[in-house]
């Protein structure tokens, strides 16, 4: 079996809003073989930047476009292909968009491998430990405490027992920060799980101050309070915070996660399959479990990445929460024929071959704005 095509498709909703939400556009990677199989993957990054990583012509031996590195290869040799892509793109950025593009390929190759053997990816990864996982609705803050409370009530009424609020306008002022968290708790009620995503807005001392105040609202964790590059700040904060500290969604690949893991800088390590792929995520999972920390997925894109995240997280020893994006974007809800969303606060792990989801080709065609890689 040989790879014959690597197709890159960019999809985008009609009206992109100025908000921190990766469900407004998508870049799909479709790997096809000479025996008619296709694997599908997705990257959480700028779609046009990812497309350039695939389309780039040969420059020299360690600066290549990914497509020419893959066509003609055996798609089942996933580990070797990861190493080939990593080595042959060393001058293209070893911690950034190139890794996210490789992650999409890796996801597609595992999907293809599962289809080849007629097995779900979680079985190929060693076996799932969970048939379903407790899910939290992941959504942005409202503009103030009252709007945030209304959002919380909406998702409690929809059946979620846990909700995470994130990003803007958190960080504008201490008064507003506290108002947002207070509103979130009011809307959810005392018995629900509340998670707060700050969106990388503070220095370590300010984050510690907020952690003490937010602890009064019984939050499950405080996510990304600092810059992703401030590893020492995270280590310092984690040692002093009264609430668990979570981060990792910005990181791509094992080398990016290594400083956080080595320094035991986090309580919860959040892995995005659309920024790491299964191969790297499996390695990171092993390292994090070795140090006794917890793992969770990060996912704010389409059902393709949701399905991938479920396969991976179901193999983790302590899959205590699953991030379930509830953004209203059609890319989140209509890209696959199967619905991949929590019901009554729990989300089930797919059991079909590969990712266990099928692209809704009519929807993909309706949202498609660019494509490359066909003969």
Written overview of the protein:
The chain is globular. The model has no long low-confidence stretch (mean pLDDT 96). With 375 residues, it is of the alpha/beta class. The two termini are 19 Å apart. The protein contains 14 helices and 13 strands. 51% of the residues are buried. Helix 6 links the parallel strand 4 and strand 5.
How far apart, in Å, are the first and last alpha carbons?
Answer: 19 Å
CATH top-level class of the largest domain: Alpha Beta
- The quaternary state of the protein chains shown equals single chain
CATH topology of the largest domain: TIM Barrel
Secondary-structure class: alpha/beta
CATH superfamily of the largest domain, called what?
Enolase-like C-terminal domain
Which features does this protein show?
13 strands, four-stranded antiparallel beta sheet, Enolase-like, domain 1, nine-stranded mixed beta sheet, globular, alpha/beta, TIM Barrel, 375 residues, 39% helix
Helix and strand arrangement:
Elements: E1 3-12, E2 25-33, E3 38-43, H1 47-55, H2 66-70, H3 78-88, H4 97-117, H5 121-124, E4 132-140, H6 145-157, E5 162-166, H7 174-188, E6 193-197, H8 204-214, E7 219-223, H9 231-240, E8 245-247, H10 254-262, E9 268-271, H11 273-290, E10 294-297, H12 303-313, E11 322-325, H13 330-333, E12 346-348, H14 361-367, E13 368-372
Helix pairs in contact: 1-4, 3-4, 4-11, 6-7, 8-9, 10-11, 11-12
What would you say about this model in short?
The protein is an alpha/beta fold and 375 residues long. It has helices at 47-55, 66-70, 78-88, 97-117, 121-124, 145-157, 174-188, 204-214, 231-240, 254-262, 273-290, 303-313, 330-333, 361-367; strands at residues 3-12, 25-33, 38-43, 132-140, 162-166, 193-197, 219-223, 245-247, 268-271, 294-297, 322-325, 346-348, 368-372. The strands form two sheets. Strands 4, 5, 6, 7, 8, 9, 10, 11 and 12 form a nine-stranded mixed sheet that branches.
């Amino acid at each position: 079996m040989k790879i014959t095509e690597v197709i890159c498709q960019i999809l985008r909703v009609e009206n992109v809003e100025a908000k921190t939400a990766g469900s407004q556009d998508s870049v799909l990677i479709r790997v096809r073989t000479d025996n008619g199989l296709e694997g599908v993957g997705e990257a959480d990054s700028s779609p046009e930047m990812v497309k350039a990583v695939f389309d780039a012509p040969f420059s020299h031996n360690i600066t290549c476009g990914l497509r020419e590195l893959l066509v003609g290869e055996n798609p089942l040799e996933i580990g070797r292909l990861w190493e080939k892509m990593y080595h042959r793109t060393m001058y293209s950025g070893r911690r950034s968009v190139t890794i996210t593009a490789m992650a999409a390929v890796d996801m597609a190759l595992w999907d293809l491998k599962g289809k080849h053997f007629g097995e779900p990816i979680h079985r190929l990864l060693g076996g799932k430990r969970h048939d379903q996982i407790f899910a939290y609705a992941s959504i942005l803050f409202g503009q103030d405490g009252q709007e945030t409370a209304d959002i919380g009530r909406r998702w409690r009424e929809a059946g979620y027992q846990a909700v995470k609020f994130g990003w803007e306008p958190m960080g504008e002022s201490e008064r507003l920060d506290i108002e947002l968290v207070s509103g979130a708790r009011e809307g959810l009620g005392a018995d629900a799980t509340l998670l707060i995503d700050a969106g990388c807005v503070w220095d370590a001392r300010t984050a510690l101050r907020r952690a003490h105040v937010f602890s009064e609202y019984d939050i499950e964790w405080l996510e990304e309070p600092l810059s992703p590059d401030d590893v020492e700040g995270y280590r310092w904060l984690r040692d002093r915070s009264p609430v668990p500290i979570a981060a990792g969604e910005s990181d791509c690949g094992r080398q990016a996660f290594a400083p956080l893991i080595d320094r035991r800088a986090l309580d919860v390590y959040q892995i995005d399959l659309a920024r790491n792929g299964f191969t790297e995520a499996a390695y990171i999972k092993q390292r994090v479990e070795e140090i006794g920390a917890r793992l969770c997925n990060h996912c704010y894109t389409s059902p393709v990445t949701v399905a991938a995240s479920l396969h991976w997280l179901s193999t983790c020893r302590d899959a205590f929460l699953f991030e379930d994006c509830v953004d209203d974007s059609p890319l989140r809800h209509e890209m696959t024929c199967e619905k991949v969303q929590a019901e009554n606060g729990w989300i089930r792990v797919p059991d079909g071959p590969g990712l266990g989801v099928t692209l809704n080709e009519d929807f993909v065609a309706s949202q498609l704005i660019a494509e490359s890689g066909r003969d």
